[in-house]
Amino acid sequence: MPNLRLLRVLVHVFAGVLTCAFLFPFSSDARRSHFVRRWSIGLLHLCRVEVRFIDQSGGQLADHALIVANHVSWMDIFVINSWQACHFVAKSDIRSWPIAGWLSAQAGTIFLARGKQREVRRIYEGLVHQLRENKRIAFFPEGTTGAQGNLLPFHANLFEAAIEAQVPILPFAVRYVDAQGNLHPAADFIGEMTFAESMKLILKSGGMRAELIQLPSIPTDGAHRREVAQRAREVVANGLGQVLVD
């Protein structure tokens, strides 16, 4: 049965390639966002991942804000995109991934090469411009995936873009649970685990629920990026029901 589901996932990926190749060049931004959201919902459905959106923000809107979230799995991007399509900031090496890198680029992913200051500055200026243009930008400030129950420190650099663009931070907490509400171990994508190994675990897991928790926004007026990053981490930890010890 998992092999059949894997085949269906591959067919879905191929359909995404065709959409990007033949429909995206002639589509508006709104239409592309619709395609990305619909495709993300379809992928999660095939993986038997049910998304539950939980609003703990008091009804605040996601427009004109920099979106941040904790990072558990490659699925996080699609969980967020199933709610509203975003342009994600990702490591530049993802661009070289077969198929997935090309699909990510077509979906508007912003690739960031660490250590290349000129390119980092160019990307940063682009983020500020897009935020001022009300583009929906998202990134994972942990910088890598971490096991559920362990929230890594937040890197502060990209928070500066929200401060300069004069937009708030809209934080989300993401977690994956089983039928009893316990953290699902098959969601963790850490260490030397490959994408194929992760997909196999998810398809054999029997299904899980992804909880996407929207949290209160964080103002950036007059703030320092490190203060904003630390506050965002505290808010996300609270949303996950975790107590920070560092």
Automatic annotation (TrEMBL):
Molecular-function GO term, any one: 1-acylglycerol-3-phosphate O-acyltransferase activity
CDD domains: LPLAT_AGPAT-like
GO biological process: phosphatidic acid biosynthetic process
Pathway annotation from the record: Lipid metabolism
InterPro entries: Plipid/glycerol_acylTrfase
Acyltransferase in keyword set: yes
SMART domains for this protein: PlsC
Residue spans crossing the bilayer: 6-28
Superkingdom to which the source organism belongs: Bacteria
Keywords: Acyltransferase, Lipid biosynthesis, Lipid metabolism, Membrane, Transferase, Transmembrane, Transmembrane helix
Keyword Transmembrane helix attributed: yes
Domain Phospholipid/glycerol acyltransferase: 65-177
PANTHER family: 1-ACYL-SN-GLYCEROL-3-PHOSPHATE ACYLTRANSFERASE, 1-ACYL-SN-GLYCEROL-3-PHOSPHATE ACYLTRANSFERASE-RELATED
Protein name: 1-acyl-sn-glycerol-3-phosphate acyltransferase
Species of origin: Undibacterium nitidum
